[in-house]
Amino acid sequence: MKQAITFGIVLLIVGLIVGYAVFGKIGGRYVSILSIMGIHVKSVTGFFANVGDKFGAFDKIRTNIVLCGLGGLAAGFVLGLLYKKR
To answer: What residue spans define the domains of the chain?
Structure first.
């Protein structure tokens, strides 16, 4: 069971990274991780992040990234249960 949890956490992190790499772009540029998390810097980029968030662009990005992470968690948990230590 400990091994399944470890595999799950590792593949959760990998899934989040892959999800960000695939879905974290708007207009050919990666969106700041802080903007995706909802932490906006009070600057011009923070203003545009707030505007983008009002149109729901970050909601779709967040959802896709979280789904990739959850897929990695599930796959890691299953692989950890199936993997037998020799």
So the answer is: 2-80
